[in-house]
C-alpha cells in the first residue's frame, strides 16, 4: 500500500540546478527514446543572473540531459553559456532570438539521415504593445530551426524571413512559439506540419502551418480554439502541445495540449485529428491530466508542456512541467494505463 501511494504522488525527474543555465527556472522539455536504454531530454531554463527586463517565462537557454531508463537523468555539459547547448543569438542584428530561446521540438535522425532537427522559439529586443500596456523585451517571439549531428552541438538554420525565423507573428498576434514539427512517415500532402500557439485577442490559440521543404511555410490559421463553454478547463487558452499517432487507430492523430481556465489554472487535455492534421476536435470536455490533488505537492498548482513518448507495449509516458504553490517548476512523468492514453498515474523518479 505504501508503494502504491508513492506512485500516485509522483516526483520530478528534473529540478533546477544551482550554477547551471536553469538555476532560476525550468521550462518545458522534449523527451525522445533513441533506443532501448538511451533516452534524451532537451529542455529550457533560465539562470539566476538572467536579464531582469526580459519577459519572465521559463526560457533563456536550452540544455540536454540523458538517461538509460527515462526516469533517472544526468545533465550533459554543453559548450554554450552556463553549460547550455543553445544560447540567445549574438551574431545577427535584429535576430528574432537575441534575448531568450526555448525548445519546442527535436526530431532525431531516421532511416538514412544523420541529422537532428530542433524547432525552437526566441524573443527579440522589441517591447510590443498589448492594448494600453507595453510588454517586456522578448515578448515578441518567433520560430526558428537548428540542426546537429549529435544532438548536443547545434547550428542555426536561417529561415527566409529577415530576422532568420521560419514563422513570425502576424499583425494581430503578440507572439508565436513552442513549435512542434510533425514529419509524417507515410506519403501525404503537405508532407510536414508545424504546430505552434499564438497569443491573439488576449487568448492562446493553436495554429498549424505546412511545408514540403521546411523553408517555405503556408499558414493555415487556428486549428484548435479556446473552448466555447464558460468554466471549461481550456476556456481561456490552448497552448503547448504534443501530436502523435493514435496507437489504436493509425488513421487518426492525437494532440495532448495544455489548457488554461478562467482562473489561470493549467491542465492537459486531448484532441483528435484526421491524418491530414489540419482539423481537430476535443476528446471530451475534461482534462486527462490535472494538477495533484495535494495542493502542497510539487505539481499542485499547474501541469503543462506535455511531451509524450510511446513505448513498445502500446503504453506511453507523459513528461510534463509541474508548478508548486511556491512558484517552483520541475519536470515530471506519468505512465498510461496500457493503451488507454487518457488515464495516467504519476511516477516516482530519481533526478540528478
Structure commentary:
- The chain has 352 residues and is mostly beta strands.
- It has one helix and 22 strands.
- The protein has one helix at residues 2-9, and strands at residues 25-35, 38-46, 61-67, 73-76, 100-107, 116-123, 129-130, 133-134, 141-148, 155-157, 173-183, 192-200, 203-211, 218-224, 237-245, 252-260, 266-274, 280-282, 302-310, 316-323, 329-337, 340-346.
- It has a four-stranded antiparallel β-sheet with strand order 1-2-3-4, with no helix packed on it. It has a four-stranded antiparallel β-sheet with strand order 5-6-9-10, with no helix packed on it. The protein has a four-stranded antiparallel β-sheet with strand order 11-12-13-14, with no helix packed on it.
- Strand 13 (203-211) and strand 14 form a beta hairpin.
- The protein is globular and about 50 Å long.
